[in-house]
Design brief:
The protein has six helices and four strands, in the order αααβααβαββ. By secondary structure, the protein is an alpha/beta fold. The chain has a four-stranded mixed β-sheet, sandwiched between helices. Helix 3 runs parallel beside helix 5.
């Protein structure tokens, strides 16, 4: 498996950092224990390969992009990091039998989003004395290729919280987990 960690970034790549840093991760997006036909793989049957691929994208990919972009964010007057999480990454919601998606137990996907949320807290703490804000966003069950377009929300609806967190004022929160209705429990 190729490394997801970027090599030294050349100046020409900095013009389009998303293209050079994220492209290697796109092939892993549909590798979760959730098949496009809607079948959920029980945790005991999730393969190590699937677990690794999911973590490559959702954890290591996001982590390496953030570390790579951090020098540029530090130079900004209003650096913002929005980690794309999921309500499925909330341990509180996942342990609530009344949660809307309580039956969606995707060991690889859910745990990778919970880990991403943990990194959100860690980076927010490290950067608390800077102008950088680091938050996690839950876009909701959005119709995408990952779920065979069965999601109940449009991409435009999902983007609302991302845009809100990306454009926070100086007094905005950091180290939180949010959807468009407010704070999501960890």
């Amino acid at each position: 498996m190729p490394s997801i960690f970027p090599q030294k970034i050349e100046k020409r790549e900095m013009k389009h950092p998303r293209r050079s840093l994220i492209k290697p991760h796109l092939h892993n997006l549909t590798s979760s224990g959730f098949e496009l036909n809607g079948v959920i793989t029980p945790p005991s049957q999730v393969t190590m390969e699937t677990l690794r691929k999911t973590y490559e994208t959702n954890v290591f990919g996001a982590f390496s992009v953030l570390q790579t972009m951090l020098p540029l964010l530090r130079k900004s007057d209003a650096g913002r990091v929005v980690n794309m999480s999921s309500g499925l990454g909330s341990l509180t919601q996942n342990s609530d039998p009344n949660y809307e998606f309580a039956n969606v137990k995707l060991a690889d996907y859910n745990s990778s989003k919970a880990t991403l949320n943990a990194f959100t807290v860690q980076f927010a703490y490290e950067l608390k004395d800077t102008s950088i804000k680091v938050n996690s966003a839950d876009p909701g069950f959005t119709a995408t290729d990952l779920n065979g377009h069965r999601g109940t929300r449009t991409v435009e609806q999902a983007a609302r919280i991302v845009v809100k967190l990306a454009t926070l004022s100086e007094s905005g929160p950091t180290g939180g987990f949010f959807d468009e209705n407010g704070q999501v429990p960890w």
